Amino acid sequence: MIEIDHTGDHGILEIRMTPPVTDADYTDTLIPAIDAAIAKGDRVRMLAVVEAGFSDFTLGAMLKDARTGLKHWRGFDRAALVTDNTAMRNAVGAFSVFLPCPVGKFAMSELEDARRWLRESLGTIQQEEIGDGILHLSLRGKLDGEAYANDLEDLNRYMAKHEKMRLLIDLRDFDGWQGLGALKDHFDLVRGHASRVDRAAIVGDAGWQDMAVGIGKRAFGLDARHFGGSEFDKAKEWLAA
What we know:
Layout (H helix, E strand, L loop, with lengths): L1 E6 L4 E6 L5 H18 L3 E7 L8 H13 L4 E7 L3 H10 L7 E4 L4 H9 L3 E7 L4 E10 L1 H15 L5 E6 L3 E4 L1 H15 L3 E7 L3 H14 L3 E4 L4 H9 L1
Parallel strand pairs: 2-3, 3-4, 4-5, 7-8, 7-9, 8-10, 10-11
Antiparallel strand pairs: 1-2, 6-7
InterPro entries: SpoIIAA-like (IPR021866), SpoIIAA-like_sf (IPR038396), STAS_dom_sf (IPR036513)
Pfam families: SpoIIAA-like
């Protein structure tokens, strides 16, 4: 059985699955609820409380589950799985890297933690004008699609006042992306604004960052340099020169 327990703030759709789970539960309950939630907003945050095990899903339900995920591939902003079934948590964890949104896994005793995780932002992009025509972008934590949506609004406001910009991209506290969807949002943001960037400095110690600068130079013709985490002031001086 699939029940819709609660549809709350932040675009959260909360569902509960108890045995047995059939294809009719998907057709009659879950899919209409997801469609209705997406119709209210671009993306949905879903909390799935699963009291059923793999053996409690009929074959038709498993097929419906796969089709539902594919149909709404870009419709989920974040998903939380709450279950005491270790095998199910491990299986979801193994496949979560391929999913377009961040997926959190919680035990039944952590239900409130899961709800709080869905409400909170995972990471932030902070913008600050620091003089000499330099815009400081600080990426913190693990970023999801919401962080990029918020940043795009701020960046567009800044660009409405500036023909060109010099970017100081601070990655010292950056922990990566939550899911492939956030990574795509990152590339979309870079591609959409690269022509307006006069010069860019990336500050951080991760090995991939130097490679990213090289890709940016070749792909977008950026005048860009990578600086170590201790070279923040040196990066500012290079941008201001």
